[in-house]
Inverse folding.
DNA sequence: TCAAAAGTGTTCGCGCTACACCCATGA
DNA sequence: TCATGGGTGTAGCGCGAACACTTTTGA
């Protein structure tokens, strides 16, 4: 019935993942560039196999791009407007790729399948960026971390999806103690504060931030971290599971 | 390609609506009972036409059951577990309806269509219960308002969907000034307070509740309401749009 | 001894809660 | 004039923000 690459997927439904990472006071998103002429980038995505749940599908997609198995994952919204189809995108490609790349690499049936209208389930994931070795899929030319404020223009409504994901992340961050998943296992209070400041794009008072975090009672204080700098050495912390 | 009743729908995706109403200090949900032997109830739901957005589909489904066009509507979650299919349900029906009702009223193609695994997009709606004249669809035997604590057992995971909807409603109620949509246009402060107490299932202090609501600066105070009771007449209010 | 940055204790103001009081209404 | 329920003012309390002070570190 409905096949793409010989797999039996649910038709007209896709999953798009906003994979957040954090490095050097910047919130980043993992974005592959498609192996087609014309600079097309999109969110890492995929389809849902008949014999897997949507969460399993999202995990499979994430694992393929990040190599990580245990990832913090949250479904945040469905995008189902009319006009969410790859048609204009493929038309552009056909125009740009007259030889044999791109659209030609799809056979006729696959092209029909992929250019229909799609409903997309948005997931966001939080990862320790240092643990990720970004993996190209077979349709990618490259895959890279982009600072969220310097994202390239993405296909369809994918820029909008990122904006929505960030909004949802901000709402959940305080509630669910998920910020730690963006950091390495061991971190200083300053690291944590800078992460929060980056996500909310506003400063926090140092002492109050520390107090608030410690009162959550989820941090183990470890030994001090001697940096060689001429100041008091900060404690290291670890998130208690 | 994919047809049910001659319509071209997206396959394996459904919409389920939790329609909230409020009457006599009770939060209610509109639940149709299916025209099949064996007491099957489900959430009002439907499918997505190829040429409508998911929001439009939800509105169409809501209008069909409530008669109302302008309805407060919120998408709150996607349910996509494995095993979300109507197969066990239809097997039960076949067992119970040996004659010609129920499953037999579907032709073979429709049966195949409807018994596949489904991904369902959950919406909740808030309506003024007095404006609604519940409408049966052709597959319903009846349709009724049920107090949320006395819901019947619904098919598949629909009871779970209702629980999720209520949870989302509670989270949004304070943020988005949507409570008023459950009340008639004109109401007293006591009406509003009782609505909140019902939804959150806990009491609020009368004076503080009043202050909080008035400080939102979204209520127009109208004339007093003389009830004939031997006490001070309460003001009537209207939500300012 | 000093500057830099980390850790901690204290005060201030706001918003929510609780208590108190007054007012209108019909019997 | 009284009971009932509605409207409003004020005091207490807890949390987060702002401020202040101490401690540690290497130059």
């Amino acid at each position: 019935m409905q096949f793409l690459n010989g797999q039996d997927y649910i038709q007209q439904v896709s999953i798009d993942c906003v994979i957040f990472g954090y490095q050097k006071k910047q919130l980043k998103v993992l974005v592959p560039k498609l192996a087609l002429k014309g600079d097309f980038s999109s969110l890492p995505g995929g389809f849902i196999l008949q014999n897997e749940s949507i969460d399993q599908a999202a995990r499979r997609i994430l694992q393929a791009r990040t190599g990580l198995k245990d990832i913090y994952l949250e479904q945040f919204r469905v995008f189902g407007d009319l006009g969410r189809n790859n048609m204009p995108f493929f038309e552009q490609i056909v125009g740009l790729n007259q030889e044999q790349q791109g659209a030609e690499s799809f056979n006729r049936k696959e092209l029909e399948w992929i250019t229909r209208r799609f409903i997309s389930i948005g997931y966001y994931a939080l990862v320790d960026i240092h643990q990720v070795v970004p993996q190209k899929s077979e349709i990618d030319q490259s895959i890279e971390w982009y600072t969220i404020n310097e994202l390239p223009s993405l296909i369809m409504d994918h820029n909008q999806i990122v904006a929505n994901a960030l909004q949802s992340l901000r709402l959940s961050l305080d509630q669910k103690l998920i910020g730690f998943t963006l950091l390495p296992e061991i971190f200083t209070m300053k690291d944590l504060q800078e992460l929060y400041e980056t996500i909310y794009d506003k400063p926090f008072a140092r002492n109050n931030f520390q107090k608030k975090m410690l009162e959550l009672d989820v941090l183990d204080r470890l030994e001090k971290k001697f940096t060689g700098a001429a100041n008091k050495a900060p404690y290291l912390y670890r998130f208690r599971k």
Summary: The mean pLDDT of chain B is 90.
